[in-house]
């Protein structure tokens, strides 16, 4: 157990939730049956991370004849599952860590470490688990020039300049962290892909990373630019039905697999935000995806084809466009294609209703894309634990096959019987010493990995196990951290866009408020497109009298959303345009409720500050100070969001604030002129 004085020593967060590397290695009795790179790593991790063990530890795959008498579960564990339990092997009482493969044993070793560090009694340990989702990947939006799109934790981890020769030890540390959660894939480069990532030079660099990651059970994938046959191959077209194009991709896939025999496959953003794609040739997304899938198929690779499109279809409502384009394609995708769908129909907002494509394409494996990097939730500075956001979508009921057809069951493949299933998280990782830009952002990487393994885990339980491992086992500290984490995401919703409002941020940076913005090139880039507020009311009518986006949901869900009285209040203005004096269920007016949420958002951040103050004696000064400073920034900016938003709404509705609610600090003109001048600019 870590003592208070150990917890209080300097800590820059580099070790994440894993124990500090400089802990004196305990002299534990750890043995393996057989040899293999992954088995050796598993044993090494236990040596490195476990302080004590009540019994010798034995690591072995189930295949070992010495274990035959134990009748360990076989098929139930699959390729990556594990068993950790007491056993007697060759007359010795041991803690056995086993699985069908060495990777399973590695995951079992990490489960044992996690159990020990969260206070489990190892003398009675009995763990058995297998991942519910097959493909558990981090999508790095890392550019080849070392920058990271929407990255707030420093430059890209991948040092392309030094690769393939120099393999930075950070790559191993990164793989360890991923493997400790069960993450088994990494997309190395941005979905806004440059063709260069498919040149021999970059394939060699990717191969070097694959060599580092392989023994940790991690495959590499690449984002592929659809027009690469033109840019790299000198072809005149990238038409997926042109045999020369298909042949180019087949040769490219063969070339990649010569360098990376276990290459995972391609991630593709096509016909979205200016990216090339099959629609350029009047071909469907399925025709584009299937052509790439055919090239990868002989090697066992997959295509993750994104459904994040908002093009010419449905000009009246961006939220309808992905469904409109993809729903008719159900059943048309090859069997090694996953269609990758963001949690909501717009774009990673602090809260969105679940995407209507979940449950709507039963003959297609649908993969969930979550954003771990907090593009719309205050970057690295604001504290927002995303476990509740992730779980909210996973628990959402699509009613696709009646009650209980949750998004979790759609994406783990059980609802429609797909063996191929996946979950992707847009990484929040860079070269900052603490990897994710803040201590609490590490928890979002952690929560993604744990939920990808088991989408049914509780976000609060995940927060607790993260806090215990990150800060040490002192329950007082874990209690404080969990309390802060569990209120943090709702606080961001409250001060940026309560009651179902969304996409009200300033343009380019996506950090501060800009609800007044109305003249950007595309209508759906403007906040006014989303809130539709005027003198008489606010909200986007997505019922039959408006865009009728609700018709994209199954009838049970659509019926509930058709009526503001049966729509969850948290999604009210996403689906309905309502008068400012609309009576909420509480009896207060919509306007007063809205103001109360903004006030609550600011108050929640103040509460987190007070809670963190109490944690001061229990945390090392480095992490305490950085978090305290960030909370102060967040408080200032939550106030800014509230004041700027209210000043704007009041310029439309001319309503007074309810008693006890302070007037905005400045005039609307002032906020409009400021435009969050200090936000790092990432213009489109
Ligand atoms: C990679 O591009 C991003 C873009 O930066 C971002 O603002 C938006 O969230 O979505 C795009 C996408 O998901 O493709």
Automatic annotation (TrEMBL):
Reaction(s) catalysed by this chain's protein: Hydrolysis of (1->2)-alpha-D-(4-O-methyl)glucuronosyl links in the main chain of hardwood xylans
Domain Glycosyl hydrolase family 67 C-terminal: 437-660
Pfam families listed in its UniProt record: Glyco_hydro_67C (PF07477), Glyco_hydro_67M (PF07488), Glyco_hydro_67N (PF03648)
EC number, UniProt record: 3.2.1.131
Domain Alpha glucuronidase N-terminal: 54-112
Matches recorded under Gene3D superfamilies: Alpha-glucuronidase, C-terminal domain (3.90.1330.10), Chitobiase/beta-hexosaminidase domain 2-like (3.30.379.10), Glycosidases (3.20.20.80)
Keyword Plastid assigned: no
Residue span(s) of domain Glycosyl hydrolase family 67 catalytic: 118-435
Top EC category: hydrolase
Key words of the record: Carbohydrate metabolism, Glycosidase, Hydrolase, Polysaccharide degradation, Xylan degradation
UniProt family annotation: Belongs to the glycosyl hydrolase 67 family.
Subunit field text: Homodimer.
Protein name, as recorded: Xylan alpha-1,2-glucuronidase
